[in-house]
Specification:
The protein is α/β, with parallel strands linked by helices. It is 59% helix and 11% strand. Strand 7 and strand 8 form a beta hairpin. Helix 3 packs across helix 8.
C-alpha cells in the first residue's frame, strides 16, 4: 500500500475514533447536570469540534507580530483580499476564518489572528493558547531574525502541542546569501520545535520592481512593476502535511481538548463527591478495624476484611457514578494491591501472623493483637479507598472510548516523517500530567 494511501487510511481511522470518543463524552449520562452547566462553554466547544471532525475540516492559523505580513499571506493563499492588510498596529483585532481549499478530502480553513506586539507575557500566553484552541496547524510568520518576544511566543505555541511551520516573509528584501543565513538562523531558533524542512522563505506581498522603460522616442521612463506572491514552498509544505496527516491533526487537536475536558469533569465530580467519599471510607475503616480486631476465628477475620474492601470499592463506584460489579471491584483491588505491593504485603503479613496467633491460643491472643490488627486494617482500608477513589475520578479518561486513549493511539502511530514528531514529547508529558499548563 503506497505511503499516501496508508497515511490517509490511518487518518480516517484516527478521525473515526476521535468522533466516537467525543460523542461518548458529550452523551455521557453519568456527568451531572450541574457540572455540564458549569462547563457549558467547554461542552459547546466540544460540540463544535465534533461537527468540524464530521465535516472533515482542518483549520490553519497564521500567527506572528503586527506587520510581518500575516494577513497578506492569508490573502495570497486565498487568491483574494479577504483579510484586512495595513501598517497600523491592530489591523487584525480578532481571529477571522475563511475557507481555503479542499485537500485529500479535508476542507482547509485559514484563520488570521491578532499580532503579538505590545503584549506582556501573560497576554501573549493567552493569545497563543487562544490561537491553538481554534486551529490544528500554525504558520508562524516572521520577516527577519526572530526577536526575543517572537522566540517566547514560538515556545508558548510549542507547549500547546500544535504542529508548526515557520515562514520567513518578505524574503524579496534580502539577497540570496542573506536569505540563506536568515533561514539557518531561524532553524537554530526553532530546533526541536519546527522541523528544518518546515522553515521556508516566502514573499506574500513583494515590493514592486523598479525598472526603466525606454519609449519609442528614446525617452526613459521609470515605472513600478507589481510582482506576484512567491508562496510555492509554503504551499507545497502545507499541501503535503494536509494530504499526509490532515485528519490526524484534527483528530489529535479535538482529542487533546476532550481529554482536558474529561479531566475537568473528573475533578469537579471529585470535588462534589469527595466529602461523601471521605465519610464512606471512614465508615468502612471503622467497620473493618472492628471486624478484624474482634473476630476470634483465624482466617475468617481476613476474609471479612477482603469482603469489606470489595464492598467499599463497589460503594465508591456508586458514589462516583461508575458502578462496579463484584468482579470488577476485586480486579481493581488486585491492581491497587499490586501497585502497593511492598506496603500491602507487610500489612497482610502482620495480619496473617496475628490471625495465626488467634488459632494457636484458641482466640485468647485477640486481646493482645486486636489493637495492632485494628490499626493496620484501618490503614489498609484507607489506602484501598483512596486509591480506588483516584482511579474512579481519573480512570474515565482512559476508557476504551476515552479521548486520552485516542491521543495515545495517535501518538503511538506517528512515524519519523510526521510533522507531529517535534511535539511528541510534549504530548506525552501532557498525558502524564507533567506539562506546565492544564
Amino acid at each position: 500500500m503506497p505511503n499516501s494511501v496508508a497515511s490517509q487510511a490511518r487518518g480516517d481511522a484516527h478521525n473515526s475514533h476521535a468522533i466516537e470518543s467525543l460523542r461518548t463524552l458529550l452523551d455521557d449520562p453519568q456527568i451531572p447536570a450541574a457540572i455540564r452547566s458549569g462547563l457549558a462553554s467547554d461542552f459547546a466547544r466540544l460540540e463544535a469540534m465534533l461537527g468540524k471532525l464530521e465535516r472533515g475540516e482542518l483549520h490553519i492559523a497564521v500567527f506572528g507580530r503586527v506587520s510581518v505580513g500575516k494577513s497578506a499571506l492569508a490573502n495570497a493563499l486565498l487568491g483574494e483580499d479577504v483579510f484586512a492588510v495595513g501598517v497600523l498596529h491592530g489591523t487584525t483585532t480578532q481571529a477571522t476564518q475563511r475557507s481555503w481549499r479542499e485537500v485529500a478530502g479535508s476542507g482547509v480553513h485559514l484563520i488570521d489572528t491578532p499580532g503579538i506586539d505590545e503584549l506582556d507575557g501573560e497576554a501573549r500566553e493567552k493569545l497563543a493558547y487562544d490561537v491553538a484552541g481554534v486551529c490544528d496547524l500554525v504558520v508562524f510568520v516572521v520577516d527577519g531574525d526572530m526577536t526575543m518576544r517572537e522566540r517566547d511566543a514560538l515556545h508558548l505555541l510549542a507547549r500547546t502541542e500544535r504542529p508548526l511551520l515557520l515562514a520567513l516573509n518578505k524574503v524579496d528584501r534580502y539577497g540570496d546569501e542573506e536569505a540563506t543565513r536568515l533561514l539557518e538562523r531561524l532553524r537554530e531558533h526553532a530546533a526541536g520545535i519546527v522541523r528544518p524542512e518546515d522553515v521556508v522563505a516566502i514573499s506574500a506581498q513583494p515590493s514592486p520592481l523598479k525598472r526603466v522603460r525606454v519609449d519609442a522616442d528614446g525617452t526613459e521612463v521609470a515605472e513600478l512593476v507589481e510582482r506576484m506572491p512567491d508562496l510555492d514552498r509554503l504551499r507545497e509544505r502545507l499541501t503535503a502535511v494536509v494530504e499526509r496527516e490532515g485528519k490526524t491533526l484534527a483528530a489529535l487537536n479535538a482529542s487533546l481538548f476532550a481529554g482536558r475536558l474529561s479531566d475537568q469533569v473528573g475533578v469537579r465530580i471529585a470535588q462534589a463527591r469527595s466529602e461523601l467519599a471521605a465519610t464512606l471510607i471512614r465508615q468502612y475503616c471503622i467497620a473493618k478495624s472492628l471486624a478484624v480486631a474482634l473476630n476470634p476465628i483465624p482466617v475468617a477475620d481476613l476474609l471479612a476484611a477482603g469482603a469489606l474492601d470489595a464492598a467499599l470499592v463497589m460503594h465508591l463506584g456508586r458514589v462516583y457514578g461508575l458502578p462496579l460489579t463484584k468482579s470488577e471491584a476485586g480486579s481493581l483491588i488486585a491492581v491497587i494491591s499490586a501497585q502497593l505491593a511492598a506496603l500491602m504485603g507487610a500489612i497482610w503479613g502482620v495480619q496473617l501472623v496475628a490471625s495465626a496467633l488467634k488459632g494457636l491460643s484458641a482466640g485468647l491472643s485477640t486481646v493482645v493483637t486486636a489493637g495492632a490488627q485494628g490499626a493496620l486494617a484501618w490503614y489498609a482500608t484507607e489506602l484501598v479507598g483512596r486509591a480506588a477513589e483516584k482511579y474512579l475520578v481519573g480512570g474515565k479518561s482512559w476508557g476504551d472510548k476515552g479521548p486520552k486513549r485516542v491521543v495515545t493511539e495517535i501518538v503511538d502511530s506517528l512515524d519519523r516523517d510526521s510533522i507531529l514528531r517535534e511535539a511528541r514529547s510534549e504530548i506525552l508529558q501532557r498525558l502524564r500530567g507533567t506539562a506546565t499548563r492544564p
